């Protein structure tokens, strides 16, 4: 908060962003209106060991790896057997210092009501390499509740693909556990553990200034306009899609048979699982009113440029008129599609250079 009452982001470590979408985790004081409320609805992800007889959980510790080990923090120093571990999803609320108040009272009572730091591993008196670490600290990654819902829907779509015999990348996101593996391995380790940076191979499809430690609200307005749009609650979603439907004619280059196939693929969400909430009754009614080029519409929706506005992305997806909320949903879905375990791991040379700066 600046003099004169103008509300601005307090920067430094306070600019914590969602590990899935790259947009900021806003505190209540920074949520200007209802449309941005979703940026305040936070969940902290971490892992824990399940106690015997369902008597609670013990949150895992993470620590720096050995001298010749990995890019990221590792589980330890005495990790629990893999089959005993689970991913916790803790309802939380960001505050103005970049920490999160745990609202969840049942999942992990030991941290309920506490203020926790995220995107870092705060180890007390860490032991430097090459010796093995003596102890670690919990690792929490913040995600928007809406982004977690998208992740769950993405996982459901991959399960459907597997059941239908389609190939799914084994190192992609196929479960919440795998989502955790992808995200936490992106956090570069430092001896002191205070990182607060979570790289993405695609840089979250824009908004680099948006995540800069010296960010101010006007630094990257184009990215903010897209990234701050609620990807779940999208008014008039079906109408937004159907406004791009054009008549089927000889010049379109699409056959009637192809158009029928693409229509069915759209309404069953087989082609675009990120459009799970299309109103199929409205779609079928539109289908009955004439001969439409569903091929052009479907191909536009599946094109990678659909996340960009028409003026900057050209044809084949960029020419579609879609709401920013829908484009943001597709952006986040594509981030989930392309995510892989160890997808930002550095080379050994880069790792040595980074250690020299630690």
Can you walk me through this structure?
It is a single chain. The protein has 358 residues and is of the alpha+beta class. The protein has 2 domains: 12-232 and 339-357, no CATH class; 237-322, no CATH class. Helices cover 28% and strands 10% of the residues. It has 10 helices and 8 strands. It has helices spanning 145-163, 176-184, 221-227, 237-242, 256-267, 280-288, 294-302, 310-313, 324-338, 348-357, and strands at 42-50, 57-59, 62-63, 74-75, 85-94, 99-102, 115-117, 141-144. The strands form 2 sheets. Strands 1, 2, 5, 6, 7 and 8 form a 6-stranded antiparallel beta sheet that branches. The protein has a two-stranded antiparallel sheet with strand order 3-4. A hairpin with a 4-residue loop joins strand 5 (85-94) and strand 6. It is elongated and about 70 Å long.
User: In which range does the helix fraction lie?
Assistant: 25-40%
Structural class: alpha+beta
Query: Major beta sheet, specifics?
Result: 6 strands, antiparallel
The value of Rg in angstroms is 22 Å
Number of helices: 10
Overall number of strands? 8
Mean pLDDT: 83
Termini gap: 32 Å
Given the C-alpha coordinates, what overall shape results? elongated
The percent range for strand residues is 5-15%
Number of domains: 2
The SSE order reads: EEEEEEEEHHHHHHHHHH
Low-confidence stretches: 1-13, 354-358
Write the layout of secondary structure elements.
Blueprint: E1 42-50, E2 57-59, E3 62-63, E4 74-75, E5 85-94, E6 99-102, E7 115-117, E8 141-144, H1 145-163, H2 176-184, H3 221-227, H4 237-242, H5 256-267, H6 280-288, H7 294-302, H8 310-313, H9 324-338, H10 348-357
Antiparallel strand pairs: 1-2, 1-5, 1-8, 3-4, 5-6, 6-7
């Amino acid at each position: 908060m600046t003099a004169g009452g103008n509300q601005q982001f307090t920067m430094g470590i306070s600019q914590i962003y969602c590990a899935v979408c790259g947009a900021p985790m806003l505190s209540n004081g920074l949520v200007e209106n209802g449309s941005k409320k979703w940026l305040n609805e936070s969940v902290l992800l971490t892992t824990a060991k399940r106690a015997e007889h369902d008597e609670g959980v013990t949150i895992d510790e993470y620590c720096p790896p050995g001298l010749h080990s990995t890019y990221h923090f590792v589980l330890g120093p005495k990790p629990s057997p893999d089959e005993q571990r689970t991913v916790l999803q803790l309802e939380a609320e960001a505050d103005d210092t970049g920490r999160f108040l745990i609202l969840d009272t049942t999942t992990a009572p030991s941290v309920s009501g506490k203020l926790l730091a995220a995107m870092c591993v705060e180890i007390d008196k860490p032991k430097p390499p090459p010796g093995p670490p003596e102890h670690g600290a919990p690792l929490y990654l913040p995600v928007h509740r809406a982004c977690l819902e998208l992740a769950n829907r993405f996982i459901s779509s991959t399960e459907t693909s597997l059941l239908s015999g389609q190939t799914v990348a084994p190192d992609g996101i196929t479960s919440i556990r795998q989502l955790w593996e992808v995200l936490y391995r992106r956090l570069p380790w430092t001896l002191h553990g205070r990182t607060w940076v979570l790289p993405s191979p695609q840089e979250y499809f824009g908004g680099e200034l948006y995540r800069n430690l010296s960010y101010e609200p006007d630094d990257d307005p184009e990215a903010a306009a897209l990234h701050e749009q609620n990807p779940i609650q999208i008014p008039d979603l079906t109408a937004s899609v159907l406004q791009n439907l054009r008549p089927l004619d000889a010049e379109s280059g699409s056959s009637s048979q192809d158009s029928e196939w693409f229509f069915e693929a759209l309404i069953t969400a087989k082609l675009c699982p990120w459009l799970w909430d299309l109103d199929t009754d409205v779609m079928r009614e539109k289908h009955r009113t004439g001969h439409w080029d569903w091929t052009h519409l479907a191909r536009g929706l599946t094109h990678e440029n659909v996340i960009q506005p028409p003026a900057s992305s050209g044809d084949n997806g960029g020419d579609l008129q879609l709401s920013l909320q829908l484009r943001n949903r597709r952006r986040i879905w594509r981030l989930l599609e392309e995510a892989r375990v160890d997808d930002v791991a550095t080379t050994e040379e880069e790792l040595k250079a980074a250690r020299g700066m630690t």
